[in-house]
TrEMBL record:
Residues 1-60 are annotated as: Disordered. It comes from Lentithecium fluviatile CBS 122367. The keyword Nucleotide-binding does not apply. The chain crosses the membrane at residues 78-100, 112-134, 141-163, 169-187, 216-242. Keywords: Membrane, Transmembrane, Transmembrane helix. This is Mitochondrial integral membrane protein-like protein. InterPro entries: AB_hydrolase_fold (IPR029058), DUF2417 (IPR019431).
Length: 551
């Protein structure tokens, strides 16, 4: 078979010899006596009988006119399929790691960004494989835009220390692989386009400029998909830019490595450890509820210190909240209590402690109290969550919604809109009103959901059984919550029986679940906290406390 029209001999009239003239018949007869090579995968479609009036060229619609005739094209397709299989395997591991962290694959960030990059990688490869023989310039352009933005993302992740730490080797590998695959898809489409043109000219005798309706539809569908990919990667780059901006926000306190240095939690302590007489004073441990401590809960503690009600307090962020890293999955309330214990120990913080907690954070405080009975002198629970109601935050429907919200969180739809149109600040996004939009926060909520009605419930039930009966206890409840949820009200009353030393149970009128957001709520909390401080001084003097610690 001749390579192209110009390579074939012409007759005296400048015309190509036909297969059915005498010379051609003689040549065919002569070739019939010559030994023939075995047909190969490349030639077996080309050695078929031709129509009587054929000039030796194939019809443009003949199946043999295909770029698959070239080894380079088939090589690219084999490797593209191989890359797709590798990406699907990696995608499966990342999906599992959201719920259960495989050894060595824990990410101190949310884990949703690396999952998103892998989804984008699989999408690019699927488009390339499905529309392999329909190359088009528009596909190379849109995929090129995706590749450039992915390259920018890779640079941001590697250049910003905080993001590089959160993403870890898993996130870095995911974005590098996404960049490589994007450029591979561009190269593949370009080579297939070249091979398609070469084979059409060689086998049809002319360059093919037309496309079938099927090819146009394929190009249209592929173009729409890749344009969607462009929008996705632009949003992801914008979200990554916001994360880089937020990472520069200064914080009080320190980030302390815990759990074998797997992740770090944020801990800050304010005030003096002793009074003017040199006596050690109780330290208040602030445990937030469903929001980071810094949002407004910690402000109440600071005002209490300014009012001389307390002398010192510490607040921290549970894993995934504000400045704390995400912990490996699964992560229970008892594990959070252990992380707090380790952080306090590494910072040299000692009791006596008075625990002040709200909402779901009260579960962590109760477990912490049962494991540090000698150091904890008082507990104040603010509209606390009861262990029998943990099924509310552990429902499968809520878990699915959190997972789905986490999957699309790298797009940053709300975060970008808030920053551009509503003037949201770094404070709003890290620990303020928009902290719930963070991938880390969503991952933390998902972790709480997965084990709330199993591990966490078992831990808090055990903690109740061993809780010291002498510990001073205050329960402050929301009247609005109790009035609208009778089961919640009954469980609030049950929590007043955690110890035999109930100081007070206040149901604050017109107070929401976040009781400290009303003046009456703040006043009631500060009044009862003052009583707990006085009770701590009476129950355990510093000498008695030191003796208890030594024992």
């Amino acid at each position: 078979m001749w390579g192209s029209k110009k390579d074939r001999p012409e007759n005296g009239n400048g015309e190509q010899p036909s297969r059915d003239d005498g010379a051609s018949a003689t040549n065919v007869s002569r070739r019939s006596y010559e030994p023939r090579e075995e047909p190969t995968e490349r030639t077996r479609l080309l050695d078929r009988p031709r129509p009587p009036n054929s000039d030796g060229y194939l019809d443009p619609d003949d199946p043999a006119v295909s770029p698959y005739n070239l080894w380079s094209v088939r090589f690219l397709r084999y490797f593209t399929v191989l890359f797709l299989m590798i990406s699907c395997l990696w995608w499966t591991l990342l999906l599992i790691s959201i719920f259960i962290s495989p050894p060595g694959m824990h990410s101190r960030g949310s884990g949703f960004f690396d999952f998103a990059y892998t989804c984008l990688t699989i999408g690019n490869l699927l488009v390339t494989v499905i529309f392999f023989v329909a190359p088009a310039k528009v596909l190379r352009v849109t995929t090129g835009i995706v590749a450039v933005f992915l390259l920018v993302d890779m640079i941001i992740i590697l250049a910003v220390p905080r993001i590089r730490l959160e993403e870890g080797w898993v996130g870095i590998a995911s974005v590098v692989w996404a960049v490589f695959v994007a450029f591979w898809c561009i190269l593949t489409d370009r080579i297939v386009a070249w091979g398609k043109k070469e084979e059409e000219e060689r086998l049809t005798g002319r360059p093919e400029t037309r496309r079938t309706l099927k090819e146009w539809l394929a190009i249209l569908v592929a173009s729409i998909i890749t344009v969607v990919f462009v929008v996705i990667v632009i949003l992801m780059t914008g979200t990554l830019g916001i994360r880089a901006r937020d990472s520069t926000l200064a914080m009080e306190g320190k980030r302390i490595l815990v759990d074998g240095d797997k992740y770090a939690v944020h801990l800050a302590c304010v005030g003096n450890v002793s009074n003017p007489d040199g006596q050690r004073v109780p330290t208040i441990i602030i445990e937030a509820g469903e929001e980071p401590s810094e949002y407004d809960f910690e402000h109440w503690a600071y005002n209490a210190m300014q009012n001389k009600t307390i002398s010192r307090y510490c607040y921290w962020d549970r894993p995934g909240y504000a400045w704390s890293d995400n912990a490996p999955s699964p992560h229970s309330a008892g594990m959070s209590a252990d992380a707090l214990s380790e952080a306090l120990a590494r910072e040299g913080e000692e009791g006596p402690w008075i625990l002040v907690s709200a909402g779901t954070g009260s579960i962590v405080s109760r477990i912490f109290s049962s494991r540090h009975m000698k150091q904890v002198t008082g507990i104040m629970l603010i509209d606390p969550m009861h262990e029998d109601l943990l099924h509310r935050i552990g429902s499968p429907a809520r878990g699915f919604m959190l997972w789905a919200w986490g999957i699309i969180s790298p797009l940053g739809l709300e975060r970008l809109a808030g920053a551009i149109f509503k003037g949201r600040t770094r404070q709003d996004r890290v620990y303020g009103r928009n902290a719930y939009q963070s991938g880390k926060y969503i991952k933390a909520q998902l972790q709480e959901n997965l084990v709330a009605d199993s591990l966490s419930k078992n831990e808090v039930v055990s903690a109740r059984n061993i809780q010291s009966a002498d510990t001073a206890l205050v329960v402050i409840s929301s009247a609005i919550k109790c009035r609208t949820d009778k089961e919640w009200e009954r469980k609030q009353e049950d929590l007043t029986k955690l110890t035999d030393n109930l100081v007070a149970w206040d149901v604050v009128n017109k107070a929401p679940h976040q009781v400290w957001r009303t003046y009456e709520g703040r006043a009631a909390m500060e009044k009862r906290l003052k009583q707990l401080v006085k009770a701590a001084a009476k129950v355990k003097t510093p000498a008695a406390f030191d003796e208890a610690v030594d024992d």
